[in-house]
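User: My instructor asked us to take a sequence, write out its structure as tokens, and then describe one feature of it. I'm not sure where to start. Here is the sequence I was given:
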Amino acid sequence: MFARTILAALSASEFTPKLVLTQPDRPKGRGRAVHASPVKLLAHELKLPIAQAPNLRDPENLQPLVELAPDVLVVAAYGLILPAQVLALPRLGCINVHASLLPRWRGAAPIERAIMAGDRETGVCIMQMDAGLDTGPVLCQQRVAIEPEHTAQPLEKALAEVGAALLIKTLRGLPAPAQPQPTEGITYADKLTAADRVANWRLGADDVHQQIRALCDRMPVRCKINGAVMQILETKINRHNDTGALKPLPGTLCKVSKDGLFVQCGHDELVITRLKLNRGKGLAMDAAAALNGYPDILHAGAIIDSSSPTSTH
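Assistant: Let's start with the prediction itself. The structure tokens for your sequence are:
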């Protein structure tokens, strides 16, 4: 979505791309059917030339860019490292639209990592690329609030719209001075993996809630309960005084009701309000529907296993 929004904005401006680079089509989903990227689909609609090199190191992959001799190369969520020879090609350099306030959250998954960390704001930087990983000087930036209800997709949409407008403004002002990134506050947004989908119930409910918010749109947190695999789609926090009375073990389903499944965390309870089970048609459902259909699985006292399951539905 992010790169597609940037491409759409460029194509609607005076900066219509002469060539669109996107990664090769790849298998996705349970059936592993090969799918084109959203960028490729939009480029087809706009009748723009497309190249899908698996890398830009090999001379034959680089040749279309050399022949094009671009004034500037715009990068947005491309997912491949640009070698030195590509960075040196454009007269005005390579410009990256990055979805964070650099140097915080350099790397592959800045949107999800910002939500997972509980950040209250993020933003977009337009940066001049260099040989490092999102280390280049910043041409301009704009802050965007992370609202309590934000999951990754709506936040990505907001950031893409801000980034598109900021990019067009930047391109109109090139060449322009850029500011080196601060040397303090550097963090890295590592690529998301299956390990990120595992809930650690020993953490506080806030931490697990942020993890679920960040991942629910693309790769929901998942766990096992009474032999079933559960994907957690929506949660809220039930705060209570953790001192005094003996608490259940983290991961214990303390209470179930139509309002949600109350899971004990390291402190406070996480209330699961929407979920999927690998039972029946495997559809998303609210807590009331889940309890009505699967009382043998979802009952008070059940233990949610936070080890990574091997299958989902």
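For the description part of your assignment, you could build on this observation: The chain has a mean pLDDT of 94. Try explaining in your own words what that tells you about the chain.
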